[in-house]
Amino acid sequence: MAEEKLINRYPDALTDVEMRYCPGCTHGTAHRLVAEVIDELGVRDRTVTIATVGCSVFAYEYFDTDAVQAAHGRGPAVATGIKRVHPDSVVFTYQGDGDLASIGMGEIVHAAARGENFTVIFINNAVFGMTQGQMAPTTLMGQKTTTSPRGRTAEEAGWPIRVCELLDTLEGPAFIAREALSTPQRIRSAKRSIKRAFETQLAGRGFSLVELLSSCWTWWDMEPVEAIYHIENTMTEHFPLRIFRDCLTGQSEEVDSNA
């Protein structure tokens, strides 16, 4: 009889709880990747999850780590306090685009500028997912939402904010990357960047952020599979995938979808 080989298992860093996300939402994929990285680095017993407001509000139910719920947009402030008081802890915030790039924009910019030594997992689905699909700072030009029913225009709402490019103008960040949760190759690449971000924190090098292009098929008015194609074919055009900064290698590079 051939010897069996374990090739996959449920992450220890995830609780055995049914997630409340819409079926087909890529929040679950993001959770899995983060949990796998925490397990592989062996830091679950000293990791602190900062849940924020939005669909991410229930993150503390799903990560089997210490966790704190932050007020809307204030995840970076809470992470700063915890990391400074407990520097040996591994701290990460889990934030959506409404939380991070709207009400929390000041928080994320100043935490990055200070080079605070924690990690940010930034879910960009270009819409306010939990509060009925309003236009977000990252909503694409022409995209219809409940508050832009004719589609976003520059005249009425300005242009979408590219968070990675904005933070890359600062001297404080140590690692910045944008990845996509679309194809298997993209997902593998996303995990590499998430692991790199946590390694950056463990090395004491400072602020790290990974932006994950994610789906919200409910408020995009698409089928789940169609939404995945939308990430790959449309969102990546407006939000280019790239390692913007990596202090551990000193390099920046485009993300290779075939890697």
Number of strands: 8
| Helix percentage | 25-40%
Give the low-pLDDT segments. none
Question: What percentage of the residues does DSSP assign to strands (E)?
Answer: 15-25%
Put simply, the count of helices is 10
Average pLDDT figure: 92
Oligomer: single chain
The CATH homologous superfamily corresponds to: Thiamin diphosphate (ThDP)-binding fold, Pyr/PP domains
The SS-based structural class is alpha/beta
What is the CATH fold-level name? Rossmann fold
N→C terminal distance:
34 Å
Specify Rg, calculated over alpha carbons: 17 Å
Largest pleated sheet = 8 strands, mixed
Major beta sheet, strand line-up: 2-1-3-4-6-5-7-8
| Element pattern in H and E | HEHEHEHHEHHEHEHHEE
| Count of the domains | 1
CATH architecture: 3-Layer(aba) Sandwich
Backbone shape: globular
Indicate the CATH class.
Alpha Beta
